[in-house]
Amino acid sequence: MTAKGNDKSIKEGSGLDFKVIQRVAEKASLEDIFLIDAEIKSDPVHRDGRGATLRLVFGSDIRPKGSIDKLAVLCNFLVSAVKEGDKEDFSLEIKATFSVNYKIHSPDTFSASDIEMFAKINPIYNCWPYWREFVQNITARMGLPTLTIPLFKISKPMEDSGNPEEKSSKASNRKSTSKSE
Q1: How far apart are CA 72 and CA 102, in angstroms?
Q2: Based on the structure, what is the number of domains in the chain?
Q3: Which regions are flagged for Basic and acidic residues bias (predicted)?
Q4: Which of 4, 76, 137, 147 is the most buried (most CB within 10 A)?
Q5: 146: in domain
Q6: What is the pTM (predicted TM-score) of this model?
Q7: Cβ distance 1 to 54 under 8 Å?
Q8: Is residue 66 part of a domain?
Q9: pLDDT in tens, 84-117
């Protein structure tokens, strides 16, 4: 299975202050990323994924590290293939949690809300390639058609054209997507 629409995008204007995120990112060093939990379920009858809708959900959660200059963030991911018309019956569900750990240089220059803003998106962005590889690898090992998670992009919104459809799409920051196979 290959997800149609090959990017997952977060846009400015989505409630995230990218200037704050950039300021913190310039003082942050990525120390490590590792898988801490995973759960995989597969329907042995419906293994080809035809007619399934893909749902992708992600989020992050700060974990205290005991030191002001250390930041640990748990990144939670879920992808599921649900049969058309049946929200309870699935072909595949993969959940994973990764720990993303940073050292923050000059942490006293940032407020708690600055760090929280950084932790909402930067760890997801850093962890996304690990998540993509995990899903592709695990589906292959399960003998399923490999599933390729879309790319994750952070982009600036288009200039305001006065088109209300563009304005509503600029303002949306969905953390859940559905793609039909």
Answers
A1: 6
A2: 1
A3: 156-169
A4: 147
A5: yes
A6: 0.76
A7: yes
A8: yes
A9: 666 666 688 999 999 999 999 999 999 999 999 9
